[in-house]
Structures are given as structure tokens and as C-alpha cells.
Amino acid sequence: MSATTKxxxxxxxxxxxxxxxxxxxxxxxxxxxxxxxxSFMEFKVPYEKWTTVLDAILEVKKYLDHSIGVRYSCRxxxxxxxxxxxxxxxxxxxxxxxxxxxxxxxxxxxxxxxxVIRDLVVSFDRMFATHKKLKPYIIRDDSEITSKTKEFxxxxxxxxxxxxxxxxxxxxxxxxxxxxxxxxxxxxxxQALTQAYRYIADSRDKGKNERLKIIDEPHGIWRCHFxxxxxxVCPKGVDPAMGIQLLRGYLLGFRR
Amino acid sequence: MNKMRESIVMKxxxxxxxxxxxxxxxHILFRLTQxxxxxxxxxSVIANYEFLPYALVLELILVLISVHGFNGLRVILLELKxxxxxxxxxxxxxxxxMVAVIAYGSRTIIMTSLGMA
Amino acid sequence: MEKQENKExxxxxxxxxxxxxxxxxxxxxxxxxxxxLVYFIAHIYETSAILDxxxxxxxxxxLTQTTEGHIILAIVIGMCVFHTANGIRLMLGHGGIxxxxxxxxxxxxxxxxxxxxNKMCIYVSIGLAALAMLYGLGxxxxx
Lengths: 256, 117, 143
Hints:
The complex is a heterotrimer.
Chain A: E1 6-7, E2 22-31, E3 36-46, H1 53-63, E4 83-86, E5 89-92, E6 105-109, E7 116-118, E8 121-122, H2 125-133, H3 156-160, H4 173-177, H5 190-200, H6 208-215, H7 229-233, H8 240-252
Parallel strand pairs in A: 1-3, 2-6
Antiparallel strand pairs in A: 2-3, 4-5, 4-6, 7-8
Chain B: H1 6-33, H2 36-39, H3 42-50, H4 52-80, H5 84-113
Helix pairs in contact in B: 1-4, 4-5
Chain C: H1 21-47, H2 54-64, H3 67-94, H4 116-142
Helix pairs in contact in C: 1-3, 3-4
């Protein structure tokens, strides 16, 4: 344990029974606005078999260092707020248990390929702007109000074609791990491309050509090389790699 | 100059790849069926060049692999750094390099097949 | 508000072991592509020696038909076979073949596109490259 490692005192610990186990949590600290370079602070945190990385970070924030910047919300892997690099891989902090990491040292850093605001908090502005650019809504001239059948009906088979891609929670883990995004800031990214496919594959949508035009550019869909890392880290089973390859079929003429 | 749509460029990239695979296989077989060392002797190589269908195969390989290779390099360089000036320089630089390699290789093929070696 | 770009940079292309064999194949595809392009340009240059007559051609052969030359050529053979085989896998994948069918995701949310078919194709590509290298070495050093 280093001289700077802090530990929660027995009286302050939230757990009722004294836990036998603890890990060292290394948290990346930086404040680009103040010009503070990136450094790591270490904290000794107790854990149980159900403790998640987010629980550990919040324990530190509560008792050891209130200034740690971390974004979180639902704590149940449905809002996509707590994405960060945990022991070198982008993961959701609320969805990653300490025990599954099999390590006595847990290092948490802000997601790659996103501008850092402070500590573990990154800016999603670019990702949201790119997502909006791909028109993530049903495009058609009529609406369910005017249609004779009221709702736009879909068969279960038609729903199966896109439902998995609609599970995206915009956590940004896929963009963080993408090898193209590691160097290409103009690349649309797996998240937006998958959402483009989600709408194109939706039988209710008539905006296929508009979206295909947007992605058919030098930093569009063609800069994906099927490394598959996006699908490896997606916490909701969206499988962006599948969506992007299926989307490519439209531009290559395999699908109409 | 109109920008070629990226999907057309990538279709060319895939097409050149498939064409090159078949033709490079022919090129390698020529070396193996004659015996590797014997096939590399001066007289044997000249005879290969003067056989017109084989010279055409070599010319096609030259064009296909130059296009495929330099487009691949363009993609790698475009992903490394962005910016209008840089991207234009990379695109035109790769096209220029591709034309230069094709010209230099074609010179060898044409002159040798015409017996000017 | 000033923010760092925080791009992972070129080391984002590496870390091959961390994200599975597919990431390794991506990295190897780039490496072999660049290697083959360099070899191709050198090959065009070296074969232009034929225009300068027999003496120049034989001098070029003296440089390339050496142990080092054969080893380099064997590596090129391996790169070529891997790049071709993996390229065919990628082309099929880009057409939607071998990436699985969409369906309702369920825990543990295993991605269907990262399947045994793709992994086996990558291993087969590496295996074929190794075999081709061995065959090439056998032909070159066997004579």
C-alpha cells in the first residue's frame, strides 16, 4: 500500500459487519479546465461479493474524497451514464462487480475517445451530435394519426429485424473501444451507425436513402473494418458490429 | 474535379482484391511449374514477358495491386489524422504514387515484351 | 470549457489480446497490407533490372536469391496468404454473411457477430499462412 493510499475507518464504513476483503481503487484525476494533468489517486475500499465498481467509487466519494467527479444515474445498466475504462476495458461501472475483475487493484479512467470534463466524467456532445446527424427517428410523410389503420402495424418478424439495435443506451463504450475512433475524430462511430441501421431496418421508416447518403462518405461506414471490439464491450447485446455489416449490404447492393 | 463517392471507391477496392487474388495465383504458378530457380533465369524471364497473355496478366496485376494497395494506404493515413488540407494531400499523393508505380512497372513490361530489354 | 481530446491514439490499434482474436486480425490485416505494399514497390523496382540486360539481372538475383532474401520472401508469402484469406472473410462479413441474424438480446448479451465461424476463419487464415510459408521455404531452400 502506498503512502497516499487512503482507507475508510472501521466506524465510518457503511457495511454493518467488518468485511474481510478490500481492494485498492486507483482513480484517474484530471481537470483539463484548470490545466491539471492526469494523475492517479489510490484508495483502499472494502467490498462484498455484490459490490460493483460504482459502489466502490461512491464509497470513496462519500467518505474519503468528496471531489471525485463521476457521472452515474440508474445504477442498473439502463441509463448508460457510468461508462468508464475499468482495468483497461470500457465497461459500465454499475454493471461490473469487483469480484469479476479478479484483481486486488482496480484502475478506473475516463472513457477513451471522448473529451474529458473532469476525473471520470467525459463529454458526450460529439456522440449525441453525430447520433442526431443520422436522423434517429421514423421518417415518413404520413403519421399514425392520419393513417387509416391508426398504428403502423408490424409483424413479429419485422420487429425482430431491428429490436436488438433499439436496446442501445448510448453509453458510448463502443465508441471508446473502436480502433478507428482511437485515431479518427471524424469517424461517425459504431453507436451512430448502428442506430442508422436500426431505423433503416424498421419497416415503418422511409428514410433509407437519406441516411445512406450521410454514411457514404470518407469518414462514414467505410472506416469500419469489422474489428468487432464494439460488440465485445456492449453491455446490452446491441451487437453494433452486426448492425454495421448489415448496413453495408445496402451500399454494396446486397440488400435493397 | 468531382469527388468519387466512397462506396464506389470501396467497390473498386473489393473488385481489385478479388481480381488480384486470381491473377497473382497464376503469376506464382508460373514460377513453381518451371522450377523456382530456373524460372528466375534471364532467358526464362524474357520468354515469359514475350508471351503476350502472360505480359497482360502482369500488367493487370500491376494495375490491380497498385489501386488496391494505395487505396488501402490512403484509408490508413486518413484514419491517422484529419483536416481538409491533409486529407486532400493524402488522396492526391496516393493517386500520384499509384500512377507513378503503374507507369514505372508498365515501362518494364512493355519494353521487355517488345524485345527492347 | 476546455476539454482534452483524450483519443487513445495509435496504441488503440494494438492491445491485440485484450479484445479477442478479431482485434488481432484487424491489426495483422493492417500490418500485412503495409508490408505487402512495401514489398510490391520493391518488387516493381527490382524486376525493372531486366531492362538493363543479363548482367544487371544476374546482379539483382545475387542480391535477392540469398538466405535473407528467401526468408523475406517466405514472410511475404505468409503475409499475402493471411491478407487474402482474412480479406475474403471480411468481404463476406461486409456483405452480411457470417455475422449472424438479429434477434432479441438476452443476458449475458453475447454478440452474435463474434461467433465461432469468424474466429475459425481467422485461425484458418493464420494456419494457411504458416503452411504457405513452410511450403515456400521448402521450395526455395530445397533447390
